[in-house]
Design a protein that fits this description.
By secondary structure, the chain is an alpha/beta fold. The chain is 44% helix and 14% strand. It has helices at residues 16-19, 35-46, 62-72, 85-92, 102-110, 128-136, 147-163, 172-181, 214-217, 227-235, 237-250, 288-296, 327-338, 342-358, 366-379, 391-413; strands spanning 25-30, 51-58, 76-79, 98-101, 117-120, 140-143, 167-169, 189-196, 257-261, 267-273, 278-282. The strands form 2 sheets. Strands 4-3-2-1-5-6-7 form a 7-stranded parallel sheet, sandwiched between helices. The protein has a 4-stranded mixed sheet with strand order 9-8-10-11, covered by helices on one side. Strand 2, helix 3 (62-72) and strand 3 form a beta-alpha-beta unit.
Length: 414
């Protein structure tokens, strides 16, 4: 077992972050044009004298990236779409802002000079290499890219331990657990309970799942998120990925991590301790609070985020997840138990299946079918039983899983 990725902090303790006091915290934001990235920049606007930006990256949204660069004046930006780079360069050259592209550019942003904290908010397994590059450069990590730990949890944990780097969770559930653990001895933790809204189809009859449309699946009842995460929430795969992420963030055994459906999304997660006490972190469903906590930890800066209205909070409901109707959650637990390259294959298959669903190429119920088939396929590969797969092995499993998922997608579409 490796130490948890999140830093220990006693009730009266201090960290490098706290010793910085009121100094400016400089950020590199990977995935600046997505939901997490844009909300992080809202926080920079809220605290212009305490947060600044050294690097911004985007996949394809060059127009929004240009607008962000013009406002926040980073040292450089990175665009994944290389065809958009020349226009971006022409627009930003008068401001002295350099434009980089591709994976090399992403890693350059992750290791940007002067950046204290790297917010990894890209979507998918592409976050693994830049996160490792940032860790190797000694940067603190604010992790919103759960796939990094799903695919390479052991590798990231080993690198963070070796370089003395803390990984601060941004997901609301993991931030809630982290906040509940402040001042608590880790050996006293008995159980983590991740809460899930249940998504838009929590009460929908299973026999109608084959008729679910993309538009219906993108209507989350509580949260505003990107398309991929929203579909993952509808299938409960998002919660499965969070279970795997929690295993590495907090260094617990899989059987110590539980999931509970909580439709109101007010309790973001809970920790039960060895003496029978349980702590829960509550709040209005907004990502700005956990993002801010990761950016400002261990401090809590006053902010005008919405508060709970306790007088009108009548009920908090809970129910166990239905893994028969939502098999993706079960598949994630199975991949975590299998270890090796299974989580990498799970993530790759899910990314491919969700992308196909968003293109209207497959149905909603095809997503777990494709993931299940890919996991079976991966189990028969030589790398599947590697006890400690390295990055190249994990990437190879990812590529093979995607190829298999694409074959299955084409078969479904015929």
């Amino acid at each position: 077992m490796l130490p948890s990725l999140t830093p220990e902090l006693a009730a009266n303790g201090h960290t490098d972050a706290s010793r910085r006091g009121g100094s400016v915290r400089s950020l590199a934001i990977l995935g600046a044009t997505g939901s997490i990235g844009t909300q992080a920049l809202d926080l920079v606007r809220l605290f212009p004298d305490r947060l600044d930006v050294r690097a911004l990256t985007a996949g394809r949204n060059a127009e929004l990236l240009a607008e962000q660069a013009e406002e926040f004046r980073p040292d450089f930006v990175v665009i994944g779409d290389e065809a958009a780079a020349p226009i971006l360069q022409q627009r930003l050259a008068p401001l002295g802002i350099e434009v980089l592209t591709g994976d090399q550019g992403l890693c350059a942003a992750a290791t940007a000079d002067g950046a204290d904290l790297v917010l990894t908010a890209v979507v998918g397994s592409c976050g693994l290499r830049p996160t490792l590059a940032a860790i190797q450069a000694g940067k603190s990590i604010a992790l919103a890219n759960k796939e990094t730990l799903v695919v390479g949890g052991a590798v990231v944990a080993e690198a963070a331990q070796r370089h003395g780097v803390a990984v601060l969770p941004v997901d609301s559930e993991h931030s809630a657990i982290f906040q509940c653990l402040v001042g608590e001895p880790r050996q006293a933790v008995e159980q983590l309970t991740l809460t899930a809204s249940g998504g838009p189809f929590r009460t929908r009859p299973a026999h109608t799942f084959g008729q679910i449309t993309r538009a219906e699946a993108l209507k989350h009842p509580n949260w505003s998120m990107g398309a991929k995460v929203t579909i993952d929430s509808a299938t409960l795969m998002n919660k499965g990925l969070e279970v795997i992420e929690a295993r590495w963030l907090f260094d617990l055994e899989p059987e110590q991590i539980d999931v509970l459906v909580h439709p109101q999304s007010i309790i973001h997660s809970m920790v039960t301790f060895a003496d029978g006490s349980t702590k829960a972190q509550l709040g209005v469903p907004t990502m700005k609070v956990p993002i801010q906590y990761a950016l400002t930890y261990p401090d809590r800066w006053p902010a005008p985020h919405p508060r709970l209205d306790w007088a009108h909070l009548r009920t908090l409901d809970f129910e166990p997840p239905d893994t028969e109707r939502f098999p993706c959650l079960r598949l994630a637990f199975e991949a975590l138990a299998a270890g090796g390259t299974a989580p990498s294959a799970l993530n790759a298959a899910n990314e491919e299946a969700v992308a196909a669903f968003l293109r209207d190429e497959i149905g909603f119920t095809d997503i777990p079918r494709i993931v299940s088939d890919v996991l079976d396929y991966n189990a028969g590969q030589p790398h599947a039983t590697a006890p400690h797969p390295d990055v190249e092995t994990l990437v190879g499993a990812d590529v093979a899983a995607r190829r298999r998922a694409q074959e299955l997608r084409r078969a479904v579409a015929l």
